[in-house]
Amino acid sequence: MTKKERYQFVVDYFSVHMPEPETELVYDNPYQLLVAVILSAQCTDKRVNLTTPFIFEKYPDIASLSKATAEDVFPLIRSISYPNNKSKHLVGMAQKVESDFNGEIPMTVDELVTLPGVGRKTANVITSVVEKQPNMAVDTHVFRVSKRIGLVSQKASTPLAVEKELVKNIDASLIHKAHHWLILHGRYTCIARNPRCRECGLQQACLWFQKNSLN
Fold this sequence. Notes:
This protein is mostly helical. 57% of the residues lie in helices and 0% in strands.
């Protein structure tokens, strides 16, 4: 199977079995999504979803969060990983959105990465989820799954290198979906330590499966 054929197989499979994938983070607007994604770094979506309602009740929008202090926010996110840093990031993000973007969440990667707590991965998530922009966020799941299947080269040693290969080979109209396909596949099937290969519909295309003779 050529790499082109492998990509087509994966796209065809997910288009049938996961036609409308969505983030598992719960949100109602771009502000809430941005807060949730910042909190989700090295933390489960489940934990984030248990925490954000308390934040949004007290700080329902950018304007109210921008007037808070990190000390105000910390008790609300105590159960999240790295609460000290994330408290500072959330307040700093809100203040910068207020001062530099008239209180509106920017929708370009270049603008988003200027916000505290927002790296390229987060910016790609926001733009692809909110506006379906063809941006590929590479987290640990996407990094692992894309290399295991053989969608990207084993020499792609950084998230950016993986991102570039995926974006190059996936139709732009599908990239926002492919981001979720790979994340959810990595979260529930192609898990890190014991991948559930026998349950996986990608066996025919997967280099990891073929190499490890799990069939």
